[in-house]
Amino acid sequence: MKTRQLGKTGPVVSAFALGCMGMSDGVYGPADRAESIATIHAALDASVTLFDTGDFYAMGDNEMLVAEALRGIARDRYVLSVKFGAQRDPTGQWLGYALTPAAIKTALAYSLKRLGTEYIDIYRPARLPPAPTSRR
Predict the structure, then answer these.
(1) In angstroms, rounded to a whole number, what is the distance separating the alpha carbons of residues 16 and 99?
(2) Catalytic residue ranges
(3) Three-state SS for 107?
(4) What is the DSSP letter of 98?
(5) Is residue 14 packed enough to be buried (19+ CB in 10 Å), middle (13-18) or exposed (0-12)?
(6) Residue 128 main-chain phi, psi, to 5 deg
(7) Span of 3-7, 25-29, 71-75, 114-118 with lowest mean pLDDT
(8) CA 57 to chain centroid
(9) Could you give the 3-state DSSP secondary structure of residue 127?
(10) N or C terminus of the chain: which is more exposed, having fewer CB within 10 Å?
């Protein structure tokens, strides 16, 4: 598997990544947990090292699925990329984004717990608020 360095000082990752949203969110149809875990294992076997999730995918369930699939795998064998900040209500409807320092610290604490890891390699907001426009 070819690799790429992210930025000038970022981690070296596989040229292909595995996006995990559809494994539990139902966005693309019904999800099968066992099949999703098998897919993550097959990706590791194929030397995929970059796994992408979001704390709002299936209201946190996607992070728990990723954690289950990666349990027992040496932490230096993969890179976790997590999106944060998107807010959903209990029915899954979008509420907006929470990007205050306190909201980010809270989201990170929950992601670390759900993922069962001490660190996240790439942590980024799901969206940035639009830049304010100046009025003259």
Answers:
(1) 29
(2) 57
(3) helix
(4) -
(5) buried
(6) -110, 145
(7) 25-29
(8) 8
(9) coil
(10) C
The full 3-state SS of 103-130, as one line of letters, equals HHHHHHHHHHHHHCCCCCCEEEECCCCC
3-state class (DSSP) for residue 26: coil
How does residue 128 score in pLDDT terms, banded at 50, 70 and 90? confident
Residue 94: the pLDDT is: 85
Closest CA to 18 of 44, 55, 68: 44
> Is 61 exposed, middle or buried, given 0-12, 13-18 or 19+ CB atoms closer than 10 A?
middle
**Overall size of the chain counted in residues:** 136
61: left (phi over 0), alpha (psi -120 to 50) or beta: alpha
- What distance in Å separates the CA atoms of residue 94 and residue 44, rounded to the nearest whole number? 32
**pLDDT tens profile 14-35:** 999 999 999 986 778 889 999 9
Q: Are 48 and 13 in contact (CB under 8 A)?
A: no
